[in-house]
């Protein structure tokens, strides 16, 4: 038997890290030399596993980067030299990428996930219901968009190539399969074929990103529609034209309006798919703790304790719906009267200051709260913050371009003053809302805030109880007792609930108006005349989908803030 001093000397190196502690607990009857070998062996295995994971992420990231650069070079060449590289060449490249991504998606469902121990963990924070619902909604709208595109091309089949019908058909199949796979497997933490899975996810992400870039920059369909409308006007006036005209004017009108109305949804769908695929890529090879694989005890969403917020939010929703319907009815005619633009921007100029003040008040209340900051590493929350700040750049970019165009041309007219005020207030509201939502997401929710002394009691019970079932029942009883004892709403929590519900309804209203209607930013003609049709088309198609995504993402973040209060 070794002396106590010798045992302490041999056990000291084993307590320098957590792996050594695990070896000391499991190998209580081994010698110090054997423990040291086990520590070195386990540390080497963990280090190799981390290095392999980093190498796989690096290689798959470089693969996506090269695919994006190749596709970006094709699209830029099409824009600046459409004789050497045509739109058909870009479609062929995207069709090849969609086919490869489609094959990988089918293999992932039929091969990878069916292997033993393939998906041992599922991330509870990934793919919330509002993300999957948006994925399904925008995916369905994008499929309908391609159906309208096929119908429009079929009505012009006498002067178009039949090969143009193949590309929308491929996109319909790709979007349908991708939506189904992401809906079903967005929470997976794959543990087998990790490098191949990472490469497949990055290839699919790069394909969606290139689809988004092409949708933002390609205005060929819009130009074709405008040329056909101009040709119809010339034909009615008695002039002959060489433009390809539709065989059935009524059917073409349906296809044309459906295509123009659903066009922004394709860019929205690509952005959401990129976000979901990136989360899945981060979760490949990730091992979660046993308690983290189950959903936390989040309370259900209800409006108890909130009165004024829902009332004011419903008032904004009703007013916004009325303005939206009036503007859409007017937009169905040949021209839009200026008073409807004035009504549209006046509504925004009234709602945005109220939202900004509510966000600033909520941020101030967050500073007075007793809840501590949640400093634990959470990849999903980090991605939510990045997406929230990145998506805000869309509407803010359009606002800055509008400010420059107005100040440089006619800043003294009433409509231009309203557009200028709208642009400035929109920038301020995005900044204030980002501060409020990000601060709320980093606050520990009420149901997760442990009372003082609870950690010590858990440690004592961990050594005293031998059954994990008894420990889980004890933690559940302690959590329920804590929630019951702190269920009374103080004024700060009540104010946060009121502000969150008001902002949720306001963001739903501001999401609905640009998502389903004609866009005044493109129809008022001021910025289009200042920057030119093609430049302003790219700016609007870049910023508006990000703005719609921002409003939708803000609703999800505000729901989390509401539940956390």
Automatic annotation (TrEMBL):
GO cellular component, one term: plasma membrane
InterPro entries from the UniProt entry: Otopetrin
A GO term for molecular function: proton channel activity
Transmembrane segments: 58-84, 90-109, 129-150, 165-183, 261-281, 301-329, 341-365, 385-407, 499-519, 531-550
Main location: membrane
Keyword terms, alphabetized: Cell membrane, Hydrogen ion transport, Ion channel, Ion transport, Membrane, Transmembrane, Transmembrane helix, Transport
Subcellular location(s) per record: Cell membrane
Membrane topology: Multi-pass membrane protein
The keyword Transmembrane helix belongs to this UniProt entry's keyword annotation: yes
Family: Belongs to the otopetrin family.
Name by which UniProt lists this protein: Otopetrin-3 isoform X2
């Amino acid at each position: 038997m070794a002396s106590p001093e010798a045992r302490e000397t041999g056990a000291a190196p084993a307590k320098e890290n957590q792996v050594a502690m695990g070896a000391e607990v499991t190998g209580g009857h081994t010698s110090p030399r054997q423990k040291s070998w086990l520590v070195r062996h386990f540390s080497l295995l963990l280090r190799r596993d981390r290095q392999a994971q980093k190498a796989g992420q690096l290689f798959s990231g470089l693969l996506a980067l090269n695919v994006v650069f190749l596709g970006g070079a094709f699209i830029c060449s099409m824009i600046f030299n459409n004789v050497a590289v045509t739109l058909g060449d870009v479609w062929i490249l995207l069709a090849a990428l969609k086919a490869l991504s489609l094959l990988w998606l089918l293999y992932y469902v039929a091969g990878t996930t069916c292997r033993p121990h393939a998906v041992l963990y599922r991330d509870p924070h990934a793919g919330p219901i509002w993300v999957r619902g948006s994925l399904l909604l925008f995916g369905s709208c994008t499929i309908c968009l391609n159906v309208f595109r096929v119908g429009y091309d079929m009505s012009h089949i006498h002067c178009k190539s039949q090969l143009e019908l193949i590309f929308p058909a491929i996109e319909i199949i790709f979007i349908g399969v991708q939506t189904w796979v992401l809906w079903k497997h967005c929470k997976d933490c794959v543990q087998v074929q990790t490098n191949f899975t990472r490469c497949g996810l990055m290839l699919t992400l790069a394909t969606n990103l290139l689809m988004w870039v092409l949708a933002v920059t390609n205005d060929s369909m819009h130009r074709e529609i405008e040329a056909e409308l101009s040709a119809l006007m010339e034909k009615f006036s008695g002039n002959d034209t060489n433009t390809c005209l539709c065989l059935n004017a009524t059917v073409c009108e349906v296809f044309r309006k459906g295509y123009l109305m659903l066009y922004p949804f394709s860019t929205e769908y690509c952005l959401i798919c990129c976000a979901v695929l990136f989360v899945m890529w981060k979760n490949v090879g990730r091992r979660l703790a046993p308690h983290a694989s189950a959903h936390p005890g989040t309370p259900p969403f209800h409006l108890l304790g909130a009165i004024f917020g829902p009332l004011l939010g419903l008032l904004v929703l009703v007013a916004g719906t009325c303005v939206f319907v009036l503007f859409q009815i007017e937009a169905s005619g040949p021209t839009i009267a200026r008073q409807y633009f004035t009504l549209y921007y006046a509504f925004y100029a009234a709602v945005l200051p109220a939202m900004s003040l509510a966000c600033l008040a909520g941020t101030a209340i967050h500073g007075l709260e007793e809840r501590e900051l949640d400093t634990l590493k959470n990849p999903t929350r980090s991605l939510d913050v990045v997406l929230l700040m990145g998506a805000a750049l869309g509407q803010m970019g359009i606002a800055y371009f509008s400010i420059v165009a107005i100040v440089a041309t006619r800043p003294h007219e009433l409509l231009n003053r309203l557009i200028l005020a709208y642009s400035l207030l929109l920038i301020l509201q995005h900044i204030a809302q980002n501060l409020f939502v990000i601060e709320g997401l980093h606050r520990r929710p009420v149901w997760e805030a442990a009372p003082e002394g609870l950690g010590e009691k858990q440690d004592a019970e961990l050594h005293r109880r031998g059954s994990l079932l008894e420990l889980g029942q004890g933690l559940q009883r302690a959590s329920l007792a804590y929630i019951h004892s702190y269920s009374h709403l103080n004024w700060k929590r009540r104010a946060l609930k009121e502000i969150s519900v008001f902002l949720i309804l306001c963001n739903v209203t501001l999401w609905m108006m640009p998502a389903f209607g004609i866009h005044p930013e493109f129809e008022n003609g001021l910025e289009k005349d200042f920057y030119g049709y093609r430049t302003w088309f790219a700016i609007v198609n870049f910023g508006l989908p990000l703005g719609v995504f921002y409003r939708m993402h803000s609703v999800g973040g505000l729901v989390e803030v509401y539940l956390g209060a």
